[in-house]
Design goal:
Layout: E1 2-11, E2 14-24, E3 29-33, H1 40-47, E4 55-60, E5 64-67, H2 82-87, H3 92-108, H4 112-127, H5 130-143, H6 160-173, E6 178-182, H7 190-202, E7 206-210, H8 214-220, E8 223-228, E9 231-236, H9 239-275, H10 279-298, E10 324-332, E11 337-346, E12 351-355, H11 362-369, E13 377-382, E14 388-391, H12 404-409, H13 416-425, H14 442-456, E15 460-464, H15 472-483, E16 488-492, H16 496-502, E17 506-509, E18 514-517, H17 523-526
Parallel strand pairs: 3-7, 3-8, 5-6, 6-7, 12-16, 12-17, 14-15, 15-16
Antiparallel strand pairs: 1-2, 1-4, 8-9, 10-11, 10-13, 17-18
Length: 529
């Protein structure tokens, strides 16, 4: 299904991988793991044929289905309905349109030629499963948590989470031989994750998946590729078995590196003690120098320690007692209202969690609060002393062609040295600051967007799924930093650990607009958001 030989890749001019070779056969399910920025997303783009490698060869057999972290570029005609978008995974919508045109041609002129053309097209459509396809597509979409009424609406009105589910449904419906999935469980609730795991368990093709969802990795894969520091290491077994084997490898590597460095130090000291003595001892010192250089050239690098990410949000400027008030908000996209009559306010230092199923209007609400979209009815009042920082789940504020550092400059007039320091806090160090932001991975874009929030020194944060695509160390650090931040916050998240760390004061249920106080009993609802 997939053959990779001597592959080298880079992103934004920075090398990410060199000399990688591996293969993937039917029935194999492989997890690709590594820290944010190691090159996982870039590697999947190259394997899918959407980006060119720096060197090496990629051979694919059969049909390939590729789920990007950002599905927007793959959604086709935004005016078509969602079910049509799924059907086009097999080209069935276009086939149905052609069949209807041929049927009308037969009615208008029932010539032998027209009847024959219609018969051939009808046979092809039936053989492709066209008559049962609509029901099959709807069952698959339902399994992934797309409400039935959303399938008959235009793609453009779907939320970010719904668009991602839709694209995943299209790829799975297409019947591919090779699946390349980049964070497939983003925006999926527990039921949808269970459905996806069951589907992947029965999938007979080859699967390569990038995911921070450890349950998915443990249940669905039999091999792990570890990408880091420009190399790819293969481990057999489940994710848990990989973690054990990786830890043993790192311990063994650390012992080997320590022994080598101790021997290098011993020989160097011995050579130095001989260097300025007799001619014979000086010659012996030169021989030792040669041995030291050979040892240094063959020395292994000690594994890096588990990195600790430290994120700090500055103390916000003081705002008025009620920085945000909303009255009678309503929003629709040409059809039934997504929500209407939503009224609430948020007090200084309060944390409001917005809960609701995909399509309930959570993202639409935050976009209105951020001034990115206009409501159909209602008012949003933000005090003049309030500075709003908006984190958009689709990274709308990250613009291709603009460097990482330029994005920071757009939020702050602080010196570049200070801005680079903030980027370093989010692990975007060195040359990353000058990299085209459009070439960052999904996790790195999340970190850049969060770094911009820090640089902006806001006192009201609107956060729409801020932990998506973050690896565990970064997710924990962001949760810890925001948990101790005293400003005002409106939050959308399906990450239960993150929500627990923030301990919201109140909950706004969408689309009803009902308000309630936070209780730990509501934690189970967070994963459905």
């Amino acid at each position: 299904m997939l053959q990779v030989r001597d592959l080298a890749i880079e992103a934004g001019g920075l090398p990410l991988l060199a000399g990688a070779s591996f293969s993937l056969h039917a029935g194999e399910k492989v997890g690709l793991v590594g820290r944010n920025g190691a090159g996982k997303t870039t590697l999947l783009q190259v394997l899918a044929g959407e980006a060119e490698p720096t060197a090496g060869m990629v051979l694919r057999g059969g049909r390939t289905g590729y789920l990007r972290q950002d599905p927007k570029a793959r959604l086709g005609d935004p005016g078509s309905t969602s079910v049509v978008h799924i059907l086009e995974g097999r080209g069935l919508a276009a086939m149905a349109d052609r069949l209807e045109k041929l049927r009308l041609a037969v009615e208008e002129r029932p010539s032998e030629r027209n009847v024959a053309r219609f018969s051939r097209a009808e046979e092809t459509y039936r053989h492709a499963g066209g008559y049962a396809a609509d029901a099959e597509a709807r069952r698959m979409a339902a399994g992934l948590g797309l409400a039935p009424d959303r399938l008959d609406r235009p793609v453009r009105v779907l939320s970010g989470g719904e668009r991602r589910r839709l694209e995943l449904a299209r790829i799975l419906f297409a019947g591919t031989d090779l699946l390349l999935l980049d964070e497939p469980t983003n925006h999926l609730d527990n039921d949808a994750k269970a459905w996806l795991m069951k589907f992947l368990a029965s999938f007979r093709g080859a699967l390569l998946v990038v995911s921070h969802d450890l349950v998915l990795l443990d249940r669905s894969i039999t091999r792990v590729l570890h990408l880091d520091d420009g190399g790819l290491v293969e481990y057999r077994g489940t994710y848990s078995q990989y973690r054990t084997a990786r830890r043993q490898d790192e311990e063994r590597l650390a012992r080997t590196a320590a022994r080598q460095q101790a021997e290098i130090k011993r020989l160097s000291s011995l050579a130095d003690s001989m260097r300025h003595s007799t001619e014979k001892r000086a010659r012996k010192a030169k021989t030792l120098d040669t041995r030291v250089e050979r040892l240094r050239s063959q020395a292994v690098a000690a594994p890096k320690r588990q990195r600790k990410v430290n994120v700090r949000f500055p103390t916000p400027p003081r705002s008025g007692s009620v920085p945000l008030a909303v009255q009678g908000l309503a929003k629709s996209y040409g059809g039934p209202a997504v929500f209407e009559g939503v009224t609430f306010d948020v007090g200084r230092g309060e944390r409001l969690l917005v809960l609701g199923l995909n399509g309930a209007g959570k993202t639409s609400l935050l976009r209105i609060l951020a001034g990115q979209s206009e409501p159909d009815r209602g008012l949003v009042r933000i005090l003049s002393a309030v500075s709003v920082g908006y984190y958009a789940q689709e990274h709308e504020g990250i613009r291709p062609g603009m460097s990482v550092l330029a994005h920071m400059r757009s939020q702050s007039d602080a010196p570049d040295e200070s801005l680079r320091g903030l980027l370093g806090m989010f692990e975007l160090r060195g040359d990353r600051a000058l990299q085209d932001a459009g070439t960052l991975s999904g996790g790195e874009k999340t970190k850049l967007a969060l770094a911009q929030l820090v640089a902006g020194r806001h006192n009201l944060l609107l956060l729409d799924e801020p932990t998506n695509n973050l690896d565990p160390p970064a997710r924990e650090a962001v949760a810890l930093a925001l948990g101790g931040w005293p400003g005002t916050m409106v939050l959308v998240s399906h990450d239960t650990d993150f929500v627990r760390a923030l301990q919201p004061d109140r909950v706004l249920f969408m689309p009803e607009g009902a308000l309630d106080y936070w209780s730990d009993d509501l934690v189970d609802l967070v994963s459905l958001a």
